[in-house]
Amino acid sequence: MSNSKLYKGSLNTIILKLLEERGKMYGYEITQKVKELTQGELKITEGALYPALHKLEAEGLLDVEVAKVDNRLRKYYKLTEQGERETVNRLAELEDFIRNMQHLVNPDWSIN
């Protein structure tokens, strides 16, 4: 997608929102859910996802659970209490940003 730079700044918020909705997810599951929700328009690479997950974990926003699945270890990510609060804040900021962008892209010229 040519707009992938626009999404890059929102990757952490996208991850937090998915985890808020789904409870816990593993990395590949996150990439596939984003792909599904955007009908293939946005594809998150492992090279972008895992540094973002590690950063969110280091900030205290995510907890990690390791489970054995089919004889392999799988890391599941879930929000901490702090992560839940931060998700609300970041979603509000994103909504404000989108609203302001809509005003800039489609201005109401009758307002002076």
CATH architecture classification name: Orthogonal Bundle
The structure class reads: alpha+beta
Mean pLDDT: 90
CATH superfamily: Winged helix-like DNA-binding domain superfamily/Winged helix DNA-binding domain
Are there runs of 5+ residues with pLDDT below 50, and where?
none
Integer count of domains: 1
- Strand order, sheet with most strands: 1-3-2
CATH C-level name: Mainly Alpha
Distance between the termini: 37 Å
How would you characterize this protein structure?
By secondary structure, the chain is of the alpha+beta class. 14% of the residues are buried. A hairpin with a 2-residue loop joins strand 2 and strand 3. Strands 1-3-2 form a three-stranded antiparallel beta sheet. It has helices at 4-8, 11-22, 27-37, 46-58, 81-105, and strands spanning 24-26, 62-69, 72-79. The longest helix is centred in the C-terminal third of the chain and has 25 residues, at 81-105.
Task: Supply the key terms.
single chain; 112 residues; alpha+beta; Arc Repressor Mutant, subunit A; three-stranded antiparallel beta sheet; 59% helix; elongated
